[in-house]
Design a protein that fits this description.
The protein is an alpha+beta fold. The protein has helices at 20-28, 49-60, 65-84, 94-110, 117-133, 136-160, 168-173, 184-215, 217-224, 229-242, 274-277, 292-295, 312-329, and strands spanning 7-9, 15-17, 33-34, 90-93, 176-177, 180-181, 248-253, 257-259, 262-264, 269-273, 333-335, 342-343, 351-353, 355-358.
Length: 359
């Protein structure tokens, strides 16, 4: 598609951009390519302009370097305790491991009770199935289920008043934007954005990362010798560039615009194909080549521009600590030849199942 139809129109009238140049340009121009694509409130990723700036300032306070650094021992403990319960030697599905880890790490960060773990895991599975079905009724029902979980936690903290735990969820209730308190709808939307997206994303990322390491034992050996956080971060980002689990993001045009010689009308729906952009040979001479330092400035795994993923520092921390815990508990991660891998179905990328042998 990048070569023969880099700006393609689907039967339903939407457009998809496939090249690195076009995807980057659209992501950086929120004036022409609006993020206000959903009929539901999405804080802050579904906002534009000054409104987005105000809400993004609130969200970004929770992902500062100091706050992320303070989370390191928490996430490390969650990863270590989970991996310690694995059968080594034995088999594991990396996606299932990533799902459970994501739920525990997020719950520890937000101060959510461990009793919610199984319910959240079921929700992740149901949400993925509903998204693949493209059935709006199913996706709406699953979304409302998650909102109900979040609202119950918010309501409990409001009832507790000064006796509420001093966790991230409680802190969010005390935030203000443009001088006023956040509404309950805004709080639920932020928590949905932080958790609803992250739980499935970390699972997919874990499947991609651990499978790549299983297929590249030399890289495993290098990482087992011990590398600084910054180097491991680049390694993780490069693995995710090569097999990007985050396929697309949506935009909507605010006025007529020409992209790649195609004329888009105002109000047209546009998909930015990150997976394709991250494998564009005009930017990455050999898209399969593992070159983390060279490719880092052009990697679009976490997006780019004002709407770059705000939770990237936390997601990177989680992936880094889980990867280190698995490496520490094993002498080798190998493909499981007895069980086939299964690719995730659109609109997700990566792997749906990632069976591995831990030695």
């Amino acid at each position: 598609m990048r070569s023969h139809c880099p700006v393609a129109r689907s039967p339903d009238g939407g457009w998809t951009l496939f090249t690195h140049a076009d995807v980057t340009a659209a992501a950086l121009d929120d004036r022409l390519f609006s993020n206000a694509v959903s009929q539901h409130q999405q804080v802050p990723n579904g906002m534009d302009g000054p409104t987005h700036t105000s809400f993004r300032a609130v969200v970004d306070r929770y992902f500062t370097p100091d706050r992320i650094e303070a989370l390191v021992p928490v996430v490390r403990l969650v990863a270590g305790e989970l991996v310690a319960r694995l059968d080594v030697p034995g088999s594991v599905d990396a996606v299932d491991l990533g799902s459970r880890f994501a739920v525990r790490a997020q719950s520890a960060w937000l101060g959510w009770p461990i009793e919610l773990e199984d319910e959240l895991l079921r929700w992740v599975q149901d949400n993925q199935a509903a998204t693949r079905s493209r059935d709006r009724g199913r996706t709406t029902e699953v979304a409302w289920r998650f909102d109900a979980i979040v609202r119950s936690l918010v309501d409990a903290r409001r009832r507790a008043g000064e006796g509420a735990p001093g966790d991230v969820t409680t802190q969010l209730l005390q935030e203000r934007v443009d001088g006023r308190p956040l509404t309950d709808e805004e709080i639920v939307s932020i928590l949905r954005n932080w958790t609803g997206g992250d739980l499935g994303s970390i699972a997919l990322c874990t499947g991609v990362v651990l499978t790549y390491l299983a297929d590249h034992p030399a890289l495993q050996t290098r990482l087992r010798s011990g590398v600084p956080d910054r180097e491991l971060n680049h390694v993780l980002d490069e693995i995710l560039r090569i097999d990007d689990p985050f396929v697309t993001n949506r935009r909507i045009t605010t006025q007529p615009v020409t992209v790649g010689g195609r004329r888009l009308a105002a109000g047209d729906r546009v998909h930015l194909n990150w997976t394709s952009a991250n494998r564009d040979p005009r930017m990455f001479a050999d898209p399969h080549a593992f070159e983390p330092d060279h490719n880092a400035p052009y990697n679009l795994v976490w997006g780019i521009g004002k709407h770059v993923c705000p939770g990237r520092p936390l997601a990177t921390l989680e992936l880094r600590e889980l990867t280190r815990a698995v490496l520490h508990a094993t002498t080798a991660i190998e493909p499981d030849s007895s069980r086939p891998r299964r690719r995730a179905l659109p609109p997700a990328g990566g792997l749906a199942t990632a069976p591995l042998q831990l030695r």
